[in-house]
């Protein structure tokens, strides 16, 4: 008898806030107080937005999140921690998960709150859902990259009625 499917929540499909994104958007600078808005989109359609306030001036730096989930306004803060870089240049920033207390560089939105991935049960990455028999095939033949190319927005299998070199 076949196993009943569970359809787990995939971290790959969840909204995420990462330290790298905050740095890229010029939000995370030492000794600054910055407020702004992060927006997520998929195929040109806006999927979500969040208001953020980052204070790195105080003795305990924090990130304040304010957004609406399922019609309920949610507002809370996430502590930020910096440690000296191992190469001696600057500092490395981390979030401190409000639920688990773990240092992390990414927070995932599952069940209306941004937490570290270990705070959720029943969530997986896309690769974890692949069959154990098929995983070596994906690794050997590089099928992950090929599938991502085929599913990308601007991939064209044909141009002028002829198959493209990339498609072949």
Q: Termini distance?
A: 40 Å
Overall residue-averaged pLDDT value: 84
Strands side by side in the biggest sheet: 3-4-5-6-7-8
**Shape field:** globular
Rg, alpha carbons: 20 Å
H/E element sequence = EEHEEEEEEEEEHHEE
Helix/sheet category: mainly beta
How much of the residues is beta strand, in percent? 35-45%
Low-confidence stretches: none
Please describe the biggest sheet, giving its number of strands, its sense, and whether it closes into a barrel: 6 strands, antiparallel
DSSP strand count:
13
Helix share of residues?
A: 10-25%
Describe the structure.
- By secondary structure, the protein is mainly beta.
- The protein is built from three helices and 13 strands; from the N terminus they run E-E-H-E-E-E-E-E-E-E-E-E-H-H-E-E.
- The strands form four sheets. The chain has a six-stranded antiparallel beta sheet with strand order 3-4-5-6-7-8, with no helix packed on it. Strands 2-9-10 form a three-stranded antiparallel beta sheet.
- Strand 3 and strand 4 form a beta hairpin.
- The protein is globular.
- The model has no long low-confidence stretch (mean pLDDT 84).
In short:
The protein is mainly β and 168 residues long. The protein has helices spanning 19-24, 135-141, 143-151; strands at 9-10, 16-18, 33-42, 45-55, 62-69, 72-84, 91-96, 103-104, 106-110, 113-115, 123-124, 158-159, 162-163.
Write the SSE topology.
Layout: E1 9-10, E2 16-18, H1 19-24, E3 33-42, E4 45-55, E5 62-69, E6 72-84, E7 91-96, E8 103-104, E9 106-110, E10 113-115, E11 123-124, H2 135-141, H3 143-151, E12 158-159, E13 162-163
Parallel strand pairs: 1-11
Antiparallel strand pairs: 2-9, 3-4, 4-5, 5-6, 6-7, 7-8, 9-10, 12-13
């Amino acid at each position: 008898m076949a196993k009943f499917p569970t359809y787990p929540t995939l971290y790959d499909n969840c909204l995420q806030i990462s330290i790298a994104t905050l740095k890229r958007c010029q939000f995370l600078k030492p000794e600054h107080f910055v407020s702004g808005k992060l927006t997520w989109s998929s195929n040109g359609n806006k999927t979500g937005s969040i208001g953020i306030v980052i204070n790195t001036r105080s003795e305990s730096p924090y990130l304040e999140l304010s957004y609406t989930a399922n019609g309920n306004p949610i507002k809370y803060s996430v502590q930020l921690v910096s440690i000296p870089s191992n190469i001696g240049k600057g500092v490395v920033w981390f979030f401190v998960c409000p639920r688990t207390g773990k240092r992390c560089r990414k927070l995932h939105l599952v069940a209306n709150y941004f937490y570290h991935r270990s705070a959720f049960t029943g969530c997986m990455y896309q690769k974890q859902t692949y069959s154990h028999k098929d995983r070596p095939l994906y690794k050997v033949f590089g099928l992950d990259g090929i599938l991502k190319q085929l599913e990308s927005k601007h991939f064209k299998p044909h141009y002028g009625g002829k198959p493209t070199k990339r498609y072949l």
